[in-house]
Amino acid sequence: MLAHGLLTQHLKQALKDSYGIDADEKDIVLQKTRKEFEGDFTLVTFPFIKAAKQSPEQVGDTLGKFLLAANSTFTKYNVVKGFLNISLSNDFWLQFFSGAQIENYGYKKEGSSGKTIMVEYSSPNTNKPLHLGHIRNIILGYSVANILRTQGHNILKVNLVNDRGIHICKSMLAWQKFGNGETPQSSGIKGDHLVGKYYVEFDKQYKKEIAELVSQGKPKEEAEKQAPLILEAQQMLQKWEAGDKEVKDLWKKMNGWVYDGFATTYSVLGVDFDKTYYESDTYLLGKELVQEGLDKKVFYKKDNGSVAIDLSADGLDEKIVLRSDGTSVYITQDIGTAIERFKEFPQLNQLIYTVGNEQEYHFKVLFLILQKLGYAWAKECYHLSYGMVELPDGKMKSREGTVVDADELLDEMFSTAEQTTKELGKVEGFANDELKHLYKTIGSGALKYFMLKVDAKKKMLFDPKESIDFNGNTGPFIQYTYARIQSVLGKAGETKAIDPKVELNELERELIKLVYEFPSVLEESAKTYNPSHIANYIYELTKTFNRFYHDHSILKEENETIKQLRLALAKQCGQIIKNGMNLLGIEVPNRM
């Protein structure tokens, strides 16, 4: 039996026998003992003092004595201000560790949970390349999907591409007018960057036209509406919606360039999708549901002909779901798309949207409307919200001068990884192609780890140079430790089973306790959709292993029994580091 179960069982009995308290398991809150106190697990005694009619310290002392008398697994206890700290025996930890030496320990629950979860992430527009914000979105969504899978859930990873609308027509029109037939092949420019170039060009020419009209005496607001370029872009959108062949062919061609560009970036990031949805296929889905909402009196028609829902009773505002001209708004499309997904996948239990925190209100409204329309699954929809990413001033200005695009950032990461690795003299014995792969592994690992170690809800400052430090709470530090472990194991050759009676020193015991925590860290991370729990746990494991490696010899240990224990610890720590980093989408190299 695992420590938590064993302790809970005996504590329930102790409370019953000592005080006549029939405690519920949820009332017995066990925590990891803080480092400044002796013990493995800590019980908070305060919930029981009223029924026990004793002070927190007295309750702790009574329960501690009961545990020591009840089972030899419990070896010591101490009470600090109502916190009962309990130590478990050397034999217990060794027995646990003997059973935990498997490749996928804690990594995957046996059998299926029976739950299917769809995780949506990336969601780019086809008028420009992926940027820094997309990187946080993609890394977060992909990692959460991986983590949820460890709990036995069936996961569907999806992407919704915004491939239609006025912003797409702006790029198309600018290319048509100013592109001179330029293609990714003729220019050597990656497809998404080429289309982005013409989106910027449209904006430049449009501003010139506005300035010209303003100089002729037109008010700025009027000039913005009457500039020839915007009128042409609107006309192009109307033609697209009417199915005009010439416009549709251009749209397919330029979107094709963008998809090729996105595919390259996704490949470099090491992420994928089970299905990609396109807004051009889904944007009309919600319109037919408006009538359903009117029939159910969930929606109402306004005097100007638009359709709305009043959510003021729920602490929100009125929301338009259909404009007076009969066109849909974003929320209408999202309503239709959500319903369509649950129809397409009848086994679907939950839908998770990875979208920035500026859209929190949008998702509150969306989920509430779906509930009011009578869809029970709406309560299982979840907005995985994240904060903005900022860079130190003056670093890596993008080609447009405003947004840092993903490819530029990745190139910078690989270049910084190469420079840092060379400076540290860690390139001996590698062939050129191995070095290129190593720089990419270190660079992308540094980027992903640095972003995922921060709680997603927080705004963060991303510093590329700081992220590639080989010391401290960084991806390269963890990767280097893994490579060090593989080197030790490679030199050791074949290992033997550990002796169940070997005596543990303090750091050996600490490492085994950290191994023990891995499944509960995964569980908590999945429950809270928070990869930072795993990132910071791996760092703690890595840091503790390095202290152990520094203080205690492994290969030169003369006592064979102790040597085999230390090799087993190194192997299991390495395996957990590899599995944990894999959940964050990070590769760990065997040598560095």
Question: What's the quick description here?
Answer:
The chain has 592 residues and is of the alpha/beta class. The protein has 22 helices and 14 strands.
Mean pLDDT: 93
Strand percentage, roughly? 5-15%
- In angstroms, what separates the terminal alpha carbons? 39 Å
For the largest beta sheet, what order do the strands appear in spatially? 7-6-5-11-12
Topology record:
Layout: H1 3-19, E1 30-32, E2 41-44, H2 49-52, H3 56-70, E3 74-80, E4 83-88, H4 90-100, E5 116-120, H5 132-149, E6 154-161, H6 166-178, H7 184-187, H8 191-215, H9 220-226, H10 228-241, H11 245-269, E7 275-278, H12 279-282, H13 287-295, E8 300-301, E9 307-310, E10 318-322, H14 330-344, E11 348-356, H15 360-372, E12 381-386, E13 389-390, H16 406-423, H17 432-452, E14 460-461, H18 464-467, H19 475-492, H20 506-528, H21 532-551, H22 560-583
Defining traits:
about 600 residues, Gyrase A, domain 2, 22 helices, about 10% strand
Please characterize this protein's 3D structure:
This protein is of the alpha/beta class and 592 residues long. It contains 22 helices and 14 strands. The strands form four sheets. The chain has a five-stranded parallel sheet, with helices on both faces. It is globular, with a radius of gyration of 29 Å.
